[in-house]
């Protein structure tokens, strides 16, 4: 880890929300903050107005205003800015690889699934080798709750890097860590109205709780000061995770870092990215 948290800017309010979140996180962790804007002059673009020089001035002004925004709240935080003349996706992937984490703004929700968080963000999320945090604009009416970090856990499918990120985030916040594991009822048990009874009779819930406890045991020992809630529930993984993250300050999910073939973020991660109200950290793992 470089001890640097990087934010990718694009001139939107969502990016400013990412700046605010990243600045607070950098302050908690004692990290440096780096603000970058990837930009390539394309005369046919409709995003910018004016000639090349005017667009470059606009981009640099975006960086300067973001830096000033951070300085007003965190005057002692080490903040650097850089205009990177290159396409956004490869630029942000490079930044993710060299940083403690990359933070991006999320556009929020709508009906066009697949386009809600932006094509650039989706490409970065699928390919990044380091953690990427997606932040949407906060809801000012949401009451403050006891800090809680929620992590989606699938025994045998989630690597240590995911749990390390979640436990570290909870420790930095003095927050409770809620580890959520969901499992669907096997088809053979779902044929009758008594399927839930059969599931209990077959010890499925007890087995899953024991597996979850065993997986978390070494992390509990490493972070003895943390309050850890182990939550197992039978049902859809995405639904269970979203239902248990409504009051979360941060939601952590994993993405398998495939060595070959197309990289995907997976259906559960895709669901929480589009529907979670909290910032979502996507952590690649082997």
TrEMBL record:
InterPro entries, sorted: Rossmann-like_a/b/a_fold, Universal_stress_UspA, UspA
Alphabetical list of SUPFAM superfamilies matching this protein: Adenine nucleotide alpha hydrolases-like
Pfam families hit by this protein: Usp
Coiled-coil intervals: none
Domain of life: Bacteria
Domain UspA per the UniProt entry, residue ranges: 1-136, 149-284
Similarity comment: family membership: Belongs to the universal stress protein A family.
PANTHER family membership: ADENINE NUCLEOTIDE ALPHA HYDROLASES-LIKE SUPERFAMILY PROTEIN
Name the record gives this protein: Universal stress protein
Organism whose genome encodes this protein: Streptomyces finlayi
């Amino acid at each position: 880890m470089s001890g640097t948290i990087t934010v990718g800017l694009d001139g939107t309010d969502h990016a400013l929300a990412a700046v605010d979140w990243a600045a607070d996180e950098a302050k908690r962790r004692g990290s440096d903050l780096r603000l970058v804007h990837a930009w390539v002059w394309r005369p046919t673009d409709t995003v910018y107005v004016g000639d090349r020089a005017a667009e470059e001035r606009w981009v640099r002004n975006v960086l300067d205003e973001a830096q000033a925004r951070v300085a007003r709240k965190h005057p002692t935080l080490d903040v650097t800015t850089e205009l990177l003349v290159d396409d956004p996706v490869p630029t942000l992937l490079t930044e993710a690889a060299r940083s403690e984490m990359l933070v991006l703004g999320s556009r929020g929700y709508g009906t066009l699934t697949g386009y809600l968080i932006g094509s650039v963000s989706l490409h970065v999320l699928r390919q990044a080798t380091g953690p990427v945090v997606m932040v949407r604009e906060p809801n000012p009416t949401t009451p403050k709750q006891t800090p809680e970090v929620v992590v989606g856990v699938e025994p045998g499918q989630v690597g240590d890097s995911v749990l390390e990120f979640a436990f570290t985030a909870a420790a930095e916040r003095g927050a409770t860590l809620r580890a959520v594991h969901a499992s669907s009822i096997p088809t053979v048990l779902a044929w009758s109205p008594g399927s839930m009874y059969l599931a209990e009779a077959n010890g499925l819930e007890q087995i899953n709780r024991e597996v979850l406890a065993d997986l978390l045991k070494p992390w509990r020992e490493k972070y003895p000061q943390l309050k850890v809630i182990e939550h197992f529930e039978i049902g859809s993984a995405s639904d269970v995770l979203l239902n248990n993250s409504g009051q979360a300050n941060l939601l952590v999910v994993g993405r398998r870092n495939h060595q070959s073939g197309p990289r995907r973020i997976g259906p559960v991660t895709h669901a929480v990215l589009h529907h979670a109200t909290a910032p979502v950290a996507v952590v690649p793992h082997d």
